[in-house]
Specification:
The chain is mostly helical. Helix content is 46%, strand content 0%.
């Protein structure tokens, strides 16, 4: 039966690629030290805050 079966399909990756752990930790430390809300994270330094927020929620 094995020769008659089609080869298995490769699994597709679903969703957004994982954010770097170090970047998330740096953003958390920055927010704890400065006391600013997530929406005010500097984009030049941390990228979009929408990427980091679901990771810790």
């Amino acid at each position: 039966m094995d020769p008659l079966r089609p080869p298995p399909r490769p699994k597709k990756k679903i969703g957004r690629p994982r954010t770097d752990d170090r970047a998330v930790l740096e953003a958390i430390v920055f927010i704890l030290r400065s006391g600013i809300p997530w929406e005010m994270l500097p984009r030049k330094q941390f990228g979009l805050s929408g990427i980091l927020r679901p990771r810790i929620s």
